[in-house]
Design goal:
single chain; mainly alpha
């Protein structure tokens, strides 16, 4: 019996049951949930890093975005608030669109 011990998407248990398989699961407490969202984000970002095609990259970015939505729910906030913070930071410091890469800064 494979042991997973990880956060899964909400419908995975339905899919396992539909395949006629038995499983053990539990609902995480909010603090645990947030910890597991962070762990899963690391996993998905690693998978994004390993992509070699546009299709694979978009699939992994979608997983990252889904995890961000889950984290927002744990923090009892929403995507609009996150987007407002993103826009404010972009206006103040810029985004990452230009691909600028800092090598060093001369000391005074």
């Amino acid at each position: 019996m494979p042991v997973y011990n990880k956060l899964i998407r909400d419908r995975i248990l339905e899919i396992i049951a539909a395949d006629g398989l038995a499983y053990n699961s539990r609902v995480l407490q909010p603090k645990e949930h947030l910890t597991e969202i962070k762990n899963k984000l690391y996993e998905e970002v690693k998978e994004f890093d390993e992509t070699t095609t546009k299709k694979e990259a978009i699939e992994e970015m979608a997983d990252v975005l889904e995890l961000l939505h889950a984290a927002l729910k744990v923090y009892d906030t929403n995507f609009d608030e996150l987007e407002a913070v993103r826009v404010k930071k972009k206006q103040k410091r810029g985004g990452f669109d230009e691909g600028l890469y800092l090598i060093d800064v001369e000391d005074k």
